[in-house]
From TrEMBL:
Protein name listed in UniProt: Aminotransferase class I/classII large domain-containing protein
Pfam families according to UniProt: Aminotran_1_2
Family: Belongs to the class-I pyridoxal-phosphate-dependent aminotransferase family.
Coiled coil feature spans: none
UniProt GO BP: L-tyrosine catabolic process
Domain of life from the UniProt record: Eukaryota
Lineage: Eukaryota, Fungi, Dikarya, Basidiomycota, Pucciniomycotina
CDD domains reported in the protein's UniProt record: AAT_like (cd00609)
InterPro entries assigned to the protein according to its UniProt record, in alphabetical order: Aminotransferase_I/II_large, PyrdxlP-dep_Trfase, PyrdxlP-dep_Trfase_major, PyrdxlP-dep_Trfase_small, TyrNic_aminoTrfase
Secretion signal, residue range per the UniProt entry: none
């Protein structure tokens, strides 16, 4: 192949050869564990001849299979926003006042509640990712440590790279429905801890902590006066809890906009202790592509004044998320009917439980029963596979099913399922998984 002809330099300029351009040291520190794990697996390779259709169960994106559509009310709200002509200009960098007010009204528990929110507590962001990046960057630097759960949504690591903070991991306990190992968490806290990250309901665990467990965590945070960032992008998407099952779990409802009695917002039980709450329309409203999220400051004691200023400064860098979505948000939050949330939840529960029951019958697999969010983690043992990366690579090569290894979440010896997948697709994948596991039983 002949090289393409290059355009001429402007006359008179130096013809010194160009050197390759380097990136900043900050950006070099950014890693993406999932990307690195997948390096050896080519999902774009042509599907092998044969009856087996490729199934990709890797992506935690509820829109990929087309079985979970956003509410028509949301679509109408975005159309209206476009047509109104009110979403053409720059928003305020922290977000339009009406978008922030809509978020505040959505989460505010009223005069008799524990969690009061006003529009001044809200900063609009580019999805939950933008909210997390903002919160982490405003709080952490090279003199600080930050505490993440293990297993975790590894994007937390990716977003911490620029700030050079030290990452410490506190364990979640699989035998206790992924509750926090409180003694372990406590042992990691010191005077340089910038924050503890909570994620409830959890990606990748599919767990939903009980109110009691959240109160135990909050008591520990109060004891050490440790700030919390709580990633509640799955707020309300839960049908069961860790520990004893509450009566409310048998009668899903969406009271106070959440399945209260089942899902507990951290800010509603942490008392006067401060926290930053991260949310987005991505998961509960089933449209991650809309890229709209928020940070809510919960600060009854007024100790986060500087942090509020920091969030506003950070927001100033990119002038807020896009105006069309911000203008649509009040109508999305006000008009989405309760039925939509209940239907989504019922479908996730049905799929999650059917998947759990099916996996339990496969020798060598120990699934963990999902209680919320869109995931199920499954442990395996007694197979002739070196680690979970070898597991998913062999499974993909032999059965054409792609699934994320636990290593993508710092959870060795597990695989993670996405429960927004249509049930027949999951059941087909399970049949192939059963055949795969049988073939790979470790010989004695
Ligand atoms: C999907 C996800 C996010 C990112 O949400 P976006 O709004 O799409 O940026 C954040 N945290 C967790 C735990 C997630 O699963």
């Amino acid at each position: 192949m002949s090289p393409q002809a290059l355009p001429d330099y402007p006359t008179g300029t130096s013809l010194k050869p160009w050197k390759t351009v380097n990136v900043s040291s900050g950006v070099k520190r950014i890693s993406n564990p999932i990307r690195e794990i997948l390096a050896g697996i080519d999902l774009s390779a042509p599907v092998a001849q044969g009856p087996k259709q490729l199934v990709n169960l890797g992506l935690g994106d509820p829109s990929v299979f087309g079985n979970h559509a956003p509410a028509p009310e949301s679509i109408a709200a975005i159309e209206e926003s476009l047509k109104s002509g009110r979403s053409l200009g720059y928003p305020e960098s922290v977000g339009y006042a009406d978008a922030r007010e809509a978020v505040a009204n959505y989460f505010d528990e009223g005069p008799n509640g524990n969690w009061r929110v006003t529009k001044n507590d809200v900063v609009m962001t580019h999805g939950a990712s933008g909210a997390l990046e903002m919160a982490i960057s405003v709080l952490a630097d090279e003199t600080k440590n930050v505490l993440f759960p293990r297993p975790l949504f590894t994007a937390y690591e990716t977003m911490s790279a620029i700030s050079r903070c030290e990452i410490r991991y506190y364990d979640l306990l699989p035998e206790q429905d992924w509750e926090v190992d409180l003694a372990h968490l406590e042992s990691l806290i010191d005077e340089n801890t910038a924050f503890v990250m909570l994620n409830n309901p959890s990606n990748p665990c599919g767990s939903n902590w009980s109110e009691k467990h959240l109160r135990d965590i909050a008591a520990l945070m109060a004891k050490h006066q440790t700030l919390v960032i709580t990633d509640e992008v799955y707020a309300g998407l839960a049908w069961d809890v860790t520990g004893p099952r509450p009566a409310a779990a048998d009668a899903p409802r969406v009271e106070g906009k959440f399945n209260r009695g089942v899902f507990t917002p951290y800010a509603s039980i942490c008392g006067p202790s401060p926290c930053l709450v991260v949310g987005a329309v991505s998961k509960r409203w089933l449209a991650p592509g809309w890229r709209l999220g928020w940070v809510i400051v919960h600060d009854p004691l007024g100790v986060l004044a500087e942090v509020r200023g920091g969030l506003a400064k950070w927001a100033f860098r990119i002038q807020g998320p896009n105006s069309t979505m911000q203008r649509a948000l009040p109508a999305i939050l006000a008009n989405t009917p309760e039925r939509f949330y209940l239907d989504t939840m019922a479908e996730l529960k049905r799929t999650g439980e059917a998947l759990y029951d099916r996996l339990e019958r496969i020798p060598g697999l120990t699934p963990r029963r999902p209680q919320g969010a869109m995931y199920l983690c499954c442990q395996y043992s007694g197979l002739d596979l070196e680690d979970d990366k070898a597991f998913v690579t062999a499974f993909y090569d032999e059965e054409r099913v792609f699934i994320l290894p636990g290593a993508a979440f710092r959870l060795d010896g597990y695989i993670r399922f996405v429960t927004t997948t249509p049930l027949p697709v999951l059941m087909d994948a399970c049949d192939r998984l059963e055949a795969f596991c049988k073939r790979h039983v470790k010989s004695a």
